[in-house]
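A reminder from the course coordinator: this example appears on the midterm review sheet, so study it carefully.

Given structure:
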């Protein structure tokens, strides 16, 4: 069995972000201020994944092993278990109600644990796997508006649970692949949830915000309200789709399409685009044989519609599920695809909200190269692991699968607006 012990005797905290375009591993030590500090980083080009799901087990295993080994070498440690993100499998959420009998006695911690455990027994469809089960409000004998039922009396105690599920096939492939790397999985966390834990400030979580995590194969979103995540969804479009559009539109190899997107890509047209010329190698031809130049305006004309469509899908998902108002007027963008020039302005235009870029806020030890939006999910996994596994299960914690009284205001809002 692989061990993970830090030089000071404490146990290492290890997380793994398995994405469509990159695999990233962080190893951290919890400092005296309880803030995790990264001591090992490994990231590797992702192979064997498509739309966040594994399509080639051997290639995915090699990518994961390479990233984990690099982090282990930097930290001087050997990992035993990791907290892992879930990006594939079309994560989706819903709110369910659960009740248990309490026979008229005073509600205590044991009763809370019982009703919450009952909620976590939510029977997802045969092809779905439960990832998160988070309390969002309590009832006693049908009386709603209860933030913390402990100390109260009644016959039946109820809880509204926000459950997040994902397709069981892709999740099982992910867990099997990580097991083949001789690693145990400590917890699974959906990507936008983790990205929000890393990049949001407390006021945003309380007032309402939508986190849009723009990955290579998927764009996932999470709505936070009153301090916790209350809705998640996934859209099958990401940065790789933009690259593919460029490759097809300009008849250029994918590697050159990615390079042009990174160096010259933008979502906003300018008057200078017609005069700026880009060298575009053609598929199947010698790069230097026949010069092929196109104006930058054509590149922008390919990129803009795809990202505009992505943000329109985000808006329609929020409106269709009734969370547009809960998300407030704030959107935070994370993920590598969000770093394209003009994405923030385009998102503000399409979503009609205030938009900012999200970066890891609560993690120490990150260099500038790993402290940007592309590493928000991995940093959020660290935050999740530190908080969840170092706190009592019934202690109210912001952003984690534990009872949280302030979420009752969301439950009230949900019943009044849906």
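Designed residues:
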């Amino acid at each position: 069995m692989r061990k993970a012990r830090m030089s000071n005797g404490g146990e290492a905290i290890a997380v793994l972000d398995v994405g469509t375009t990159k695999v990233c591993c962080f190893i951290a030590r919890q400092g005296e201020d309880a803030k995790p500090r990264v001591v090992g980083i490994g990231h590797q080009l992702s192979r064997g994944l498509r739309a966040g799901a594994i399509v080639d087990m051997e290639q995915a295993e090699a990518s994961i092993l390479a990233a984990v080994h690099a982090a282990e070498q930097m930290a001087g440690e050997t990992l035993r278990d990791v907290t892992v993100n879930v990006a594939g499998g079309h994560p989706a959420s819903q709110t369910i109600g659960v009740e248990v009998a309490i026979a008229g006695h005073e509600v205590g911690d044991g009763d809370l644990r019982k009703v919450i455990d009952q909620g976590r027994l939510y029977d997802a469809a045969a092809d779905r796997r439960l990832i998160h089960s988070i309390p969002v409000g309590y009832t006693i004998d049908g009386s709603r508006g209860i933030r913390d039922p402990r100390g109260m009396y009644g016959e039946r105690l109820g809880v509204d649970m926000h459950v997040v599920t994902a397709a069981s096939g892709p999740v099982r492939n992910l867990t099997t692949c990580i097991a083949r790397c001789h690693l145990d999985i400590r917890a699974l966390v959906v990507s936008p949830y983790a990205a929000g834990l890393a990049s949001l400030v407390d006021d945003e979580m309380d007032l309402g915000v939508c986190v849009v995590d723009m990955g290579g194969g998927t764009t996932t979103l999470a709505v936070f309200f009153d301090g916790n995540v209350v809705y998640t969804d996934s859209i099958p479009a990401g940065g790789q789709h933009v690259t593919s559009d460029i490759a097809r539109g300009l008849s250029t190899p994918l590697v050159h399409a990615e390079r042009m997107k990174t160096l010259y890509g933008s979502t906003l047209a300018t008057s200078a685009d017609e005069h700026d010329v880009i060298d575009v190698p053609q598929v199947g031809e010698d790069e230097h044989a026949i010069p092929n130049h196109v104006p930058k305006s054509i590149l922008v004309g390919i990129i803009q519609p795809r990202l505009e469509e992505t943000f329109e899908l985000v808006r329609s998902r929020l409106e269709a599920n009734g969370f547009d108002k809960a998300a407030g007027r704030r959107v935070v963008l994370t993920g590598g695809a969000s770093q394209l020039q003009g994405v923030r302005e385009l998102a503000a235009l399409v979503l009609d909200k205030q938009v900012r870029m999200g970066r890891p806020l609560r993690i120490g030890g990150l260099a500038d190269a790993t402290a940007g939006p592309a590493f928000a999910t991995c940093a959020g996994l660290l935050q999740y692991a530190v908080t969840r596994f170092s706190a009592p299960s019934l202690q109210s914690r912001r952003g984690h699968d534990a009872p949280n009284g302030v979420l009752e205001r969301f439950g009230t809002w949900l019943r009044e607006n849906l």
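The two ends are 50 Å apart (CA to CA). The chain has a mean pLDDT of 86.
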